[in-house]
Amino acid sequence: HVQLVESGGGTAQPGRSLRLSCAASGNTYSLNCLGWFRQTPGKEREGVATISTDTYSTYSSEAVKGRFTISRDNTRKMVYLQMDSPEPEDTAMYYCAANFPICALHGNPDYRYWGQGTQVTVS
């Protein structure tokens, strides 16, 4: 089993950077994909970015491309989301997720493990 705990959420002014962190613990050796997703009330969960744990390949949604960057530290079992130039439209609950073998971003994928989420408000 894998546990994921997010941190770093809060309130930010538009344009002020924010960094989310996700700490993974448990049997992480089998994972090959880490991702960030977000959701606002009444809307479907949306993929933000994913990163492969073996190839380092990253994918970002069109909504955040060029502004948000996903990265990971395998040694510390951490995954990060650097949010630069956030906009009010980025306000959402952000979730860290982990999966194997599929590393999908779109289509509301059913990842095996999810964190509890951290709220980000941009205003």
Concise description?
The protein is an all-beta fold and 123 residues long. The chain has strands spanning 2-7, 10-12, 18-26, 33-39, 46-52, 58-60, 68-73, 78-83, 92-99, 113-114, 118-122.
Q: Count of DSSP helices?
A: 0
DSSP strand tally: 11
- N-to-C span: 37 Å
Q: What would you call the shape?
A: globular
Order of helices and strands: EEEEEEEEEEE
State the secondary-structure class. mainly beta
Q: Can you give a write-up of this model?
A:
The chain is mainly β and 123 residues long. Helix content is 0%, strand content 50%. The protein has strands at residues 2-7, 10-12, 18-26, 33-39, 46-52, 58-60, 68-73, 78-83, 92-99, 113-114, 118-122. Strands 2, 4, 5, 6, 9, 10 and 11 form a seven-stranded mixed beta sheet that branches. Strands 1-3-8-7 form a four-stranded antiparallel beta sheet, with no helix packed on it. Strand 4 and strand 5 form a beta hairpin. It is globular. The termini are far apart. The mean pLDDT is 94.
